[in-house]
Design a protein that fits this description.
Strand order of the largest sheet: 2-3-1-4-5-6
Order of helices and strands: EHEHHEHHEHHEHE
Shape: globular
Distance between the termini: 25 Å
Structural class: alpha/beta
Largest sheet: 6 strands, parallel
Number of helices: 8
């Protein structure tokens, strides 16, 4: 049996994979609202990219608390009365922490994370966007955000692997995995229509999106 049309839909994936673009499209198609992560509001982010070891902990804690506040606001609104699409979900913060923090920092971070996590709503459906490190780097360079210029291919590769490891074990909600390297939801309407059909046919568990030829 297919799941109901999701009221809380999450688009996730590593930096540069296209989360925000797809989240906006999904909100429009389902007549809902889109809630976007505001990474540029993090005052430590620019310094983190320049000196990761020095600024990783401050950067992660700021993200953790700001994401928590934003999702808490959602849970207090009419989350289940109107479709809500986000371009992130709470566990993503711990994915980043797993590669950014030293063990002692991670231990303290985890204490805070596990206090906050139980109060966060669980998505009806998570769409996990995948792409190879080379594709991610090309997309990051193409969008030209100043604070992302120090990003390295090695960091994106480590992040990509951390995402794959996390979602390989993810079972908290239905999961749709999409390899995006050869798909263009923004510029090819047929790709988007096919994805929407797939979403409406989603069942519980993990499924892999296979675009129509």
């Amino acid at each position: 049996m297919a799941i109901k049309e999701p009221k809380y839909l999450v688009i996730e994936g590593p930096i540069g994979v296209g989360k925000t673009s797809l989240a906006k499209l999904m909100a429009r198609e389902f007549g809902g609202r889109v809630v976007l992560e505001r990474a540029e509001d993090n005052p430590f982010l620019k310094d983190f990219y320049k000196d990761p070891k020095r600024f990783a902990f401050q950067t992660q804690i700021f993200f953790l608390l700001s994401r928590y506040r934003q999702l808490q606001e959602l849970s207090q609104m009419d989350l289940f009365e109107r479709t809500t699409v986000t371009d992130y979900f709470f566990p993503k913060d711990r994915i980043f922490a797993s590669i950014n923090l030293e063990p002692s920092e991670r231990a303290l971070y985890d204490q805070i994370y596990f206090l906050l996590n139980p109060t966060i709503p669980t998505p009806d459906l998570v769409i996990y966007l995948q792409a190879g490190p080379e594709v991610l780097m090309d997309r990051v360079r193409h969008r030209g955000l100043e604070y992302e210029k120090p990003l390295t291919a090695d960091y994106l590769e480590a992040l990509n692997q951390a995402y794959n490891d996390f979602f390989f074990q993810y079972t908290d909600s239905p999961l749709l995995v999409i390899q995006t390297s050869e798909i263009d939801f923004v510029n090819r309407r047929a790709d988007l229509d096919d994805l929407i059909r797939q979403i409406k046919q989603m069942k519980k568990g993990t499924q892999y999106y296979m675009p129509r030829k």
